[in-house]
Amino acid sequence: KKPESTPAETNGTEAKPKKTKSKKSGDSCPAAQSTAESSCPDVTSLRFCQSVYTTLTNLPHRWREGEEEETGEGQRINREGEGNQKESEKCSKEEEDGFWLQTMIIMVNVSKITSLIPLKEERAPSPPIEFDNLEEFVLQPAQQGVTVKCKVTRDKRGMDRGLYPTYYLHLDNEKKVFLLAGRKRKKSTTSNYLISIDPTDLSRGGENFIGKLRSNLMGTKFTVFDNALHPDRALPDMSNARQELAAIIYETNVLGMKGPRRMIVIIPGMNKDGERVPIRPRSENDGLLIRQQNRNMENLIELRNKTPVWNEETASHVLNFNGRVTQASIKNFQIVHNKDQDYIVMQFGRVADDAFTLDYRYPLCAVQAFAIALSSFDGKIACE
User: Fold this and answer.
1) What is the pLDDT of residues 278-330, one digit of tens each?
2) Sign of CA dihedral 291, 297, 300, 303
3) CA-CA distances (angstroms) from residue 279 to 282, 291, 365?
4) Which spans are transmembrane here (predicted)?
5) pTM of the model
6) Pairing mode of beta strands 355-360, 5-7
7) S-S: 219 plus which of 80, 380, 383, 384, CB 3.0-4.6 Å?
8) Any idea what the Cα angle at residue 344 is, between residues 82 and 366, rounded to 5°?
Protein backbone atom coordinates (compact mmCIF):
# COMPACT_ATOMS: atom_id res chain seq x y z
CA LYS A 1 0.00 0.00 0.00
CA LYS A 2 1.39 3.41 -0.98
CA PRO A 3 1.94 5.87 1.81
CA GLU A 4 0.07 9.10 1.26
CA SER A 5 1.46 12.61 1.39
CA THR A 6 -1.24 14.54 3.18
CA PRO A 7 -1.56 18.31 2.78
CA ALA A 8 -0.61 20.25 5.89
CA GLU A 9 -2.73 23.27 5.08
CA THR A 10 -1.74 26.85 5.71
CA ASN A 11 -5.22 28.29 6.15
CA GLY A 12 -7.35 25.45 7.50
CA THR A 13 -9.16 24.77 4.21
CA GLU A 14 -8.33 22.11 1.73
CA ALA A 15 -6.13 23.42 -1.05
CA LYS A 16 -7.46 23.02 -4.58
CA PRO A 17 -5.31 21.42 -7.25
CA LYS A 18 -3.34 23.89 -9.26
CA LYS A 19 -3.06 23.53 -13.02
CA THR A 20 0.48 23.46 -14.28
CA LYS A 21 1.92 23.46 -17.75
CA SER A 22 3.46 20.30 -19.06
CA LYS A 23 7.21 20.22 -19.36
CA LYS A 24 9.14 18.81 -22.26
CA SER A 25 10.28 15.24 -21.98
CA GLY A 26 13.56 14.97 -20.16
CA ASP A 27 13.39 18.36 -18.41
CA SER A 28 13.19 16.82 -14.95
CA CYS A 29 16.06 14.35 -15.28
CA PRO A 30 19.09 16.13 -16.73
CA ALA A 31 21.41 13.30 -15.69
CA ALA A 32 19.68 10.98 -18.12
CA GLN A 33 18.81 13.54 -20.78
CA SER A 34 21.47 12.50 -23.28
CA THR A 35 20.34 8.88 -23.40
CA ALA A 36 16.66 9.02 -22.51
CA GLU A 37 15.45 12.47 -23.52
CA SER A 38 12.56 11.13 -25.52
CA SER A 39 11.42 8.65 -22.91
CA CYS A 40 11.45 10.82 -19.78
CA PRO A 41 7.74 11.15 -18.87
CA ASP A 42 5.79 14.22 -17.85
CA VAL A 43 6.12 14.69 -14.08
CA THR A 44 2.90 16.68 -13.77
CA SER A 45 0.72 13.69 -14.48
CA LEU A 46 -0.63 11.91 -11.41
CA ARG A 47 -1.71 9.06 -13.67
CA PHE A 48 1.92 8.64 -14.68
CA CYS A 49 2.96 8.43 -11.03
CA GLN A 50 0.46 5.64 -10.44
CA SER A 51 1.65 3.72 -13.49
CA VAL A 52 5.28 4.21 -12.44
CA TYR A 53 4.51 2.79 -9.02
CA THR A 54 2.83 -0.24 -10.62
CA THR A 55 5.77 -0.74 -12.97
CA LEU A 56 8.27 -0.43 -10.18
CA THR A 57 6.55 -2.90 -7.88
CA ASN A 58 6.23 -5.39 -10.77
CA LEU A 59 9.93 -5.37 -11.60
CA PRO A 60 11.61 -8.82 -11.71
CA HIS A 61 12.03 -10.30 -8.28
CA ARG A 62 15.82 -10.22 -8.49
CA TRP A 63 15.80 -6.42 -8.70
CA ARG A 64 13.71 -6.03 -5.55
CA GLU A 65 15.78 -8.16 -3.22
CA GLY A 66 18.95 -7.28 -1.44
CA GLU A 67 20.29 -4.22 0.33
CA GLU A 68 17.95 -1.41 1.26
CA GLU A 69 18.47 2.00 2.76
CA GLU A 70 16.00 3.61 5.15
CA THR A 71 15.09 7.15 4.05
CA GLY A 72 12.05 7.86 6.20
CA GLU A 73 9.26 6.37 8.26
CA GLY A 74 8.10 3.27 6.41
CA GLN A 75 9.98 4.29 3.25
CA ARG A 76 12.68 2.25 1.53
CA ILE A 77 14.75 2.88 -1.57
CA ASN A 78 16.02 -0.21 -3.34
CA ARG A 79 19.80 -0.27 -3.45
CA GLU A 80 20.12 -3.57 -5.34
CA GLY A 81 23.25 -3.64 -7.42
CA GLU A 82 25.43 -1.69 -4.95
CA GLY A 83 27.80 -3.96 -3.13
CA ASN A 84 26.04 -7.09 -4.35
CA GLN A 85 28.59 -8.52 -6.76
CA LYS A 86 26.96 -11.91 -7.12
CA GLU A 87 23.71 -10.46 -8.36
CA SER A 88 25.32 -7.99 -10.75
CA GLU A 89 27.34 -10.79 -12.34
CA LYS A 90 24.09 -12.44 -13.41
CA CYS A 91 23.05 -9.41 -15.46
CA SER A 92 24.64 -8.05 -18.57
CA LYS A 93 26.06 -4.54 -18.57
CA GLU A 94 23.26 -3.35 -20.85
CA GLU A 95 20.53 -4.69 -18.56
CA GLU A 96 22.15 -3.09 -15.54
CA ASP A 97 22.53 0.32 -17.22
CA GLY A 98 18.97 0.20 -18.47
CA PHE A 99 17.60 -0.62 -15.04
CA TRP A 100 19.47 2.15 -13.25
CA LEU A 101 18.47 4.65 -15.92
CA GLN A 102 14.82 3.67 -15.49
CA THR A 103 15.10 3.85 -11.70
CA MET A 104 16.73 7.29 -11.82
CA ILE A 105 13.95 8.68 -14.02
CA ILE A 106 11.32 7.27 -11.69
CA MET A 107 13.04 8.68 -8.63
CA VAL A 108 13.39 12.19 -10.06
CA ASN A 109 9.86 12.44 -11.39
CA VAL A 110 7.86 10.86 -8.59
CA SER A 111 9.80 12.75 -5.94
CA LYS A 112 8.32 16.01 -7.22
CA ILE A 113 4.84 14.83 -6.34
CA THR A 114 5.04 12.33 -3.50
CA SER A 115 8.41 13.25 -1.92
CA LEU A 116 9.11 9.63 -0.97
CA ILE A 117 8.65 6.40 -2.91
CA PRO A 118 7.56 3.11 -1.32
CA LEU A 119 9.42 0.30 -3.07
CA LYS A 120 8.61 -2.14 -0.31
CA GLU A 121 5.73 -2.77 2.04
CA GLU A 122 5.64 -0.75 5.25
CA ARG A 123 7.55 -2.15 8.19
CA ALA A 124 5.81 -4.75 10.33
CA PRO A 125 3.18 -3.34 12.72
CA SER A 126 4.14 -2.68 16.31
CA PRO A 127 3.47 -5.47 18.80
CA PRO A 128 0.19 -5.30 20.75
CA ILE A 129 0.20 -2.71 23.54
CA GLU A 130 -0.64 -4.33 26.87
CA PHE A 131 -0.52 -2.94 30.41
CA ASP A 132 -1.92 -3.66 33.86
CA ASN A 133 -1.78 -0.19 35.41
CA LEU A 134 -3.20 2.64 33.28
CA GLU A 135 -1.71 5.44 35.39
CA GLU A 136 1.78 3.98 35.12
CA PHE A 137 1.46 3.30 31.40
CA VAL A 138 0.41 6.82 30.37
CA LEU A 139 3.38 8.34 32.24
CA GLN A 140 6.01 5.86 31.06
CA PRO A 141 8.01 6.58 27.89
CA ALA A 142 7.08 4.37 24.96
CA GLN A 143 9.11 1.22 24.63
CA GLN A 144 12.08 1.74 22.33
CA GLY A 145 11.41 0.44 18.83
CA VAL A 146 7.62 0.54 19.31
CA THR A 147 5.19 3.03 17.80
CA VAL A 148 2.11 3.54 19.98
CA LYS A 149 -0.76 4.22 17.56
CA CYS A 150 -3.70 6.11 19.03
CA LYS A 151 -6.82 7.97 18.01
CA VAL A 152 -8.11 11.28 19.37
CA THR A 153 -11.84 12.03 19.21
CA ARG A 154 -13.47 15.38 19.93
CA ASP A 155 -16.93 15.52 21.55
CA LYS A 156 -18.82 18.79 21.01
CA ARG A 157 -22.21 17.57 22.21
CA GLY A 158 -23.97 19.37 25.05
CA MET A 159 -24.79 22.93 26.03
CA ASP A 160 -21.22 24.22 26.20
CA ARG A 161 -19.29 21.55 24.34
CA GLY A 162 -18.89 23.87 21.36
CA LEU A 163 -16.65 26.11 23.45
CA TYR A 164 -15.37 23.43 25.82
CA PRO A 165 -15.28 20.12 23.96
CA THR A 166 -13.97 16.95 25.58
CA TYR A 167 -11.12 15.07 23.94
CA TYR A 168 -10.54 11.33 24.30
CA LEU A 169 -7.43 9.28 23.58
CA HIS A 170 -7.78 5.58 22.74
CA LEU A 171 -5.39 2.99 21.40
CA ASP A 172 -6.01 2.63 17.68
CA ASN A 173 -6.48 -1.14 17.68
CA GLU A 174 -9.33 -3.64 17.72
CA LYS A 175 -10.04 -3.18 21.42
CA LYS A 176 -9.93 0.66 21.29
CA VAL A 177 -8.59 0.77 24.85
CA PHE A 178 -9.22 4.11 26.58
CA LEU A 179 -6.13 5.97 27.76
CA LEU A 180 -6.86 9.61 28.56
CA ALA A 181 -9.50 12.34 28.49
CA GLY A 182 -8.97 16.09 28.48
CA ARG A 183 -11.14 19.17 28.71
CA LYS A 184 -10.55 22.91 28.84
CA ARG A 185 -11.42 24.43 32.22
CA LYS A 186 -14.02 27.16 32.46
CA LYS A 187 -13.42 30.40 34.38
CA SER A 188 -9.68 30.27 33.86
CA THR A 189 -7.57 33.32 32.99
CA THR A 190 -5.49 31.37 30.49
CA SER A 191 -6.23 28.16 28.62
CA ASN A 192 -6.04 25.31 31.09
CA TYR A 193 -6.76 21.69 30.19
CA LEU A 194 -7.30 18.96 32.77
CA ILE A 195 -6.14 15.47 31.81
CA SER A 196 -7.69 12.41 33.46
CA ILE A 197 -7.48 8.62 33.27
CA ASP A 198 -11.27 8.41 33.74
CA PRO A 199 -13.52 9.76 30.95
CA THR A 200 -16.29 10.45 33.48
CA ASP A 201 -14.12 12.31 36.01
CA LEU A 202 -12.50 15.50 34.75
CA SER A 203 -12.31 17.39 38.04
CA ARG A 204 -9.14 18.99 39.42
CA GLY A 205 -9.57 17.35 42.82
CA GLY A 206 -10.55 13.92 41.54
CA GLU A 207 -8.37 10.89 42.16
CA ASN A 208 -8.17 10.28 38.41
CA PHE A 209 -6.52 13.63 37.69
CA ILE A 210 -3.20 12.80 35.99
CA GLY A 211 -1.92 16.14 34.68
CA LYS A 212 -2.73 19.47 33.10
CA LEU A 213 -1.80 21.70 30.20
CA ARG A 214 -1.51 25.46 30.82
CA SER A 215 -0.93 28.25 28.29
CA ASN A 216 0.17 31.86 28.40
CA LEU A 217 -2.19 34.75 27.60
CA MET A 218 -1.39 34.70 23.88
CA GLY A 219 -1.87 30.96 23.56
CA THR A 220 1.60 30.56 22.09
CA LYS A 221 3.42 28.84 24.97
CA PHE A 222 2.23 25.81 26.94
CA THR A 223 3.53 23.82 29.90
CA VAL A 224 2.54 20.26 30.79
CA PHE A 225 2.49 19.27 34.48
CA ASP A 226 1.88 15.99 36.26
CA ASN A 227 -0.56 15.68 39.19
CA ALA A 228 1.84 16.36 42.09
CA LEU A 229 1.81 19.41 44.38
CA HIS A 230 2.48 23.03 43.49
CA PRO A 231 6.01 24.06 44.65
CA ASP A 232 4.53 26.41 47.26
CA ARG A 233 2.83 23.47 48.99
CA ALA A 234 5.57 20.90 48.50
CA LEU A 235 8.17 19.68 50.98
CA PRO A 236 11.40 21.67 51.31
CA ASP A 237 13.31 18.98 49.40
CA MET A 238 10.72 19.20 46.56
CA SER A 239 10.35 15.42 46.54
CA ASN A 240 6.56 15.67 46.25
CA ALA A 241 6.51 18.74 43.99
CA ARG A 242 4.98 18.54 40.54
CA GLN A 243 7.12 17.78 37.52
CA GLU A 244 7.12 19.67 34.26
CA LEU A 245 6.68 17.03 31.57
CA ALA A 246 6.88 19.22 28.47
CA ALA A 247 6.79 22.75 27.09
CA ILE A 248 5.33 23.65 23.69
CA ILE A 249 6.19 26.87 21.89
CA TYR A 250 4.38 28.07 18.78
CA GLU A 251 6.46 30.62 16.93
CA THR A 252 4.58 33.89 16.57
CA ASN A 253 3.52 35.20 13.19
CA VAL A 254 3.54 38.96 13.79
CA LEU A 255 3.63 39.74 10.06
CA GLY A 256 0.45 37.82 9.36
CA MET A 257 2.14 35.69 6.70
CA LYS A 258 0.41 32.46 5.82
CA GLY A 259 2.30 29.21 6.16
CA PRO A 260 2.54 26.01 8.20
CA ARG A 261 2.70 26.36 11.96
CA ARG A 262 6.14 26.15 13.47
CA MET A 263 6.50 24.66 16.91
CA ILE A 264 9.20 23.70 19.39
CA VAL A 265 8.73 20.99 22.01
CA ILE A 266 10.98 20.77 25.09
CA ILE A 267 10.91 17.57 27.16
CA PRO A 268 13.07 16.28 30.03
CA GLY A 269 16.02 14.16 29.00
CA MET A 270 16.46 10.45 29.72
CA ASN A 271 18.99 8.80 32.02
CA LYS A 272 21.07 5.70 31.25
CA ASP A 273 18.24 3.45 32.39
CA GLY A 274 15.81 4.98 29.91
CA GLU A 275 13.93 6.85 32.64
CA ARG A 276 12.81 10.47 32.49
CA VAL A 277 14.97 12.98 34.36
CA PRO A 278 12.63 14.72 36.86
CA ILE A 279 12.28 18.47 36.34
CA ARG A 280 10.78 20.06 39.49
CA PRO A 281 11.29 23.83 39.29
CA ARG A 282 10.78 25.85 42.47
CA SER A 283 9.35 28.72 40.43
CA GLU A 284 8.38 29.57 36.87
CA ASN A 285 11.77 31.23 36.44
CA ASP A 286 13.34 27.78 36.58
CA GLY A 287 10.82 26.03 34.35
CA LEU A 288 11.25 24.49 30.92
CA LEU A 289 10.17 27.61 29.03
CA ILE A 290 12.70 29.86 30.76
CA ARG A 291 15.46 27.27 30.45
CA GLN A 292 14.85 27.04 26.71
CA GLN A 293 14.76 30.82 26.40
CA ASN A 294 18.11 31.11 28.22
CA ARG A 295 19.49 28.09 26.31
CA ASN A 296 20.09 26.25 29.56
CA MET A 297 19.42 22.87 27.96
CA GLU A 298 21.13 20.53 30.42
CA ASN A 299 19.08 17.32 30.77
CA LEU A 300 16.58 18.61 28.21
CA ILE A 301 15.63 17.49 24.70
CA GLU A 302 14.52 19.97 22.05
CA LEU A 303 12.22 18.75 19.30
CA ARG A 304 10.66 20.60 16.36
CA ASN A 305 7.93 20.05 13.86
CA LYS A 306 9.10 18.62 10.56
CA THR A 307 8.96 21.24 7.82
CA PRO A 308 6.32 20.36 5.21
CA VAL A 309 7.29 20.29 1.53
CA TRP A 310 5.52 22.52 -0.98
CA ASN A 311 3.65 20.46 -3.58
CA GLU A 312 3.06 22.15 -6.94
CA GLU A 313 0.35 19.67 -7.95
CA THR A 314 -1.93 20.40 -4.98
CA ALA A 315 -0.61 23.92 -4.33
CA SER A 316 -0.20 23.05 -0.66
CA HIS A 317 2.36 21.94 1.90
CA VAL A 318 2.53 18.17 2.36
CA LEU A 319 3.92 15.68 4.87
CA ASN A 320 4.17 11.93 4.43
CA PHE A 321 2.07 10.25 7.15
CA ASN A 322 2.17 6.75 5.63
CA GLY A 323 -1.59 6.71 5.24
CA ARG A 324 -2.29 7.54 8.90
CA VAL A 325 -3.66 11.01 8.06
CA THR A 326 -6.23 11.46 5.31
CA GLN A 327 -7.53 15.05 5.50
CA ALA A 328 -5.84 18.41 5.10
CA SER A 329 -5.66 20.51 8.25
CA ILE A 330 -3.50 23.21 9.79
CA LYS A 331 -3.33 20.90 12.82
CA ASN A 332 -1.43 18.16 10.95
CA PHE A 333 2.18 17.91 12.13
CA GLN A 334 5.14 15.63 12.78
CA ILE A 335 7.68 16.08 15.59
CA VAL A 336 11.34 15.20 14.99
CA HIS A 337 14.80 15.83 16.43
CA ASN A 338 17.11 18.12 14.49
CA LYS A 339 19.80 15.45 14.35
CA ASP A 340 17.51 12.76 12.93
CA GLN A 341 14.75 14.07 10.67
CA ASP A 342 13.70 10.54 9.72
CA TYR A 343 12.85 9.45 13.27
CA ILE A 344 9.27 10.62 13.79
CA VAL A 345 8.88 11.07 17.55
CA MET A 346 5.20 11.98 17.17
CA GLN A 347 2.72 12.61 14.39
CA PHE A 348 -0.81 13.97 14.58
CA GLY A 349 -3.40 14.63 11.91
CA ARG A 350 -7.04 14.68 10.88
CA VAL A 351 -8.96 11.69 9.53
CA ALA A 352 -12.51 13.07 10.02
CA ASP A 353 -14.20 16.25 11.25
CA ASP A 354 -13.78 15.26 14.91
CA ALA A 355 -11.30 12.39 14.67
CA PHE A 356 -7.50 12.47 14.54
CA THR A 357 -4.70 9.92 14.65
CA LEU A 358 -1.87 10.33 17.15
CA ASP A 359 1.23 8.13 17.00
CA TYR A 360 4.12 8.54 19.41
CA ARG A 361 7.45 6.85 20.09
CA TYR A 362 10.27 6.88 22.62
CA PRO A 363 11.05 9.08 24.53
CA LEU A 364 7.48 10.47 24.69
CA CYS A 365 4.77 9.11 26.98
CA ALA A 366 1.01 9.20 26.39
CA VAL A 367 0.42 12.23 28.64
CA GLN A 368 3.09 14.26 26.85
CA ALA A 369 1.82 13.31 23.39
CA PHE A 370 -1.84 13.95 24.29
CA ALA A 371 -1.00 17.34 25.81
CA ILE A 372 0.95 18.35 22.69
CA ALA A 373 -2.10 17.42 20.61
CA LEU A 374 -4.42 19.40 22.90
CA SER A 375 -2.23 22.48 22.47
CA SER A 376 -2.83 22.35 18.72
CA PHE A 377 -6.61 22.73 19.27
CA ASP A 378 -6.28 25.87 21.36
CA GLY A 379 -6.74 29.28 19.73
CA LYS A 380 -3.51 31.15 19.01
CA ILE A 381 -3.88 34.90 18.56
CA ALA A 382 -0.44 35.53 17.08
CA CYS A 383 0.11 32.32 15.13
CA GLU A 384 -2.78 32.16 12.66
Assistant:
1) 999 998 889 999 999 999 999 999 999 998 888 888 888 888 999 999 998 88
2) positive
3) 10, 11, 15
4) none
5) 0.67
6) unpaired
7) 380
8) 145
